[in-house]
Amino acid sequence: MLVDKYFTGLALDRKNTKPVYIQLYEQLRNSIEDGIIREDSKLPAIRYLADKLAVNSVTVVNAYKLLEDNKLVYKRMGSGTYVMPLKEKIITEVDANSAVDEMDYGVEGDYDQDIINFASASPDPQLFPLNDFKRVVNEVLERDGGVAFTYQDSLGYKPLRYAISDHMQLNGINASAEDVNIISGAQQGIDIISKVLLSNGDYVFVESPTYMGAVSAFRARGAKIVEIPLKNDGMDMNELEKRLKLIRPKFIYVMPNFQNPTGCSYSERKKKHLLLLCKKYGVLIVEDDYLSDLSFISAAAVPLKAYDSDNRVIYIKSFSKIFMPGLRIAYLIIPQFIREKVANAKYMADISTSGFMQRVLDSYFRSGIWNKHIEYMKKEYSIRYYEAVRASRKLLPGASFNPPNGGLNLWIRLPEEINCGELLAKCSDNKVIFMPGTAFLNSEEGNRYFRLSFAAVKPDKIAEGISIISRLMDSLRNKSIR
User: Fold this and answer.
1) CA pair distance 423, 450, nearest whole angstrom
2) Do β-strands 330-333 and 313-318 pair in parallel, antiparallel, or remain unpaired?
3) Tens digit of each residue's pLDDT (9 = 90 or more) over 106-115
4) Three-class secondary structure of residue 331 per DSSP
5) Computed from CA positions of residues 209, 211, 212, 215, in that sequence, does the dihedral angle turn out positive or negative?
6) pLDDT digits (tens, 9 = 90+) for 258-282
7) Domains in the chain, please, with CATH?
8) Is residue 217 packed enough to be buried (19+ CB in 10 Å), middle (13-18) or exposed (0-12)?
9) Residue 168: in which H helix or E strand, if any?
10) d(Cα 357, Cα 376) in Å, to the nearest integer?
């Protein structure tokens, strides 16, 4: 019998500082992932296993709950707890584009410094606030000493959570420090939400085009992806409601301000319409606040969460694109009903985000340096933005785009006779790179677009790079005519 062969041999160390239920969870998790406990196997009844292991039933309940929270097991009503199908069997409809990101194009590693890099949306390292950073680091070290390097509460460094709560008020978001979870980057937040909310066969609605790193995380939990077309002012709401009448997704994943890759922002009317539809059909929203800080016009970009009156929006905010990407700090605002599950998933992912970096960021907020830094970044990026818009309008005849008035990207539609893949190959040979539309669109339509990011390109190189793209577009155009 499986219980006698395996489960009674589990080694639970009562002297270990790690809780017994965590020890049990980790051993069961490892055995499931290694295939020792096979898919669709029924786990022992809680009381039976508790007796065999000489532990309290609550210990087994908590271990099984963590397994369920992490989508390793599922319950059959009136039957018991069973192991989920193995990961490679529950990923559905994955294609070559689903995990494409900037790293796959070699734009974040070491590369020829002569390359004009329109592919990376990460900040120019020369814009990093090194002097302020060194000063704040020294202040934290002098104030906190070695304590700065100890583990934090899994929810995050409490003073930082209060500072973020205060800062969010400026964006119209009313959330307490208890609502804030500090995480290690937006991608971790997406992954945690996926683990908590998604099971094999669930549906997720996404914008089309969208960030494929998120889609990959959803599919890794067995989700089925439904794409909703984007218009210049946000999702096609008519199409969205048609789909909602047929399918109830676990959530809708959106980037309402300066969306990646298109740069489009939802109008206030569409933000409110989206919330009304989700309330009507009982659907959650995951808002990835990609770059709302970088508005280059007087009107601020208001997060969708600011309009959320019934706590329907799960809010993810990263500091990577406006601070230093390597620090890997972001935060979640989550509804009460999944707070414990999110905390457990975060703990199982990495216990806690760097306490030292959290203390440094907290000092940025409390000293006023953060607001100064944001204004500086807006000024620097606006110079690059307006130069990219000017050069694209002048040098890319036949191509089209909608100026987003913020963010770090232009989403360029190519003339019909130009194939993005061919253009990228020629540009790469001439030391200019960008992100092809196929990294964000699964359909053949992806070959009609590319994302031009100006974040990592010096202002005096932007026109030069776009001029090279223009010249190579002309060569492809002439080739097609011949």
Assistant:
1) 10
2) antiparallel
3) 444 445 678 9
4) strand
5) negative
6) 999 999 999 999 999 999 999 999 9
7) 2-87 (1.10.10.10), 151-349 (3.40.640.10)
8) buried
9) helix 158-169
10) 21
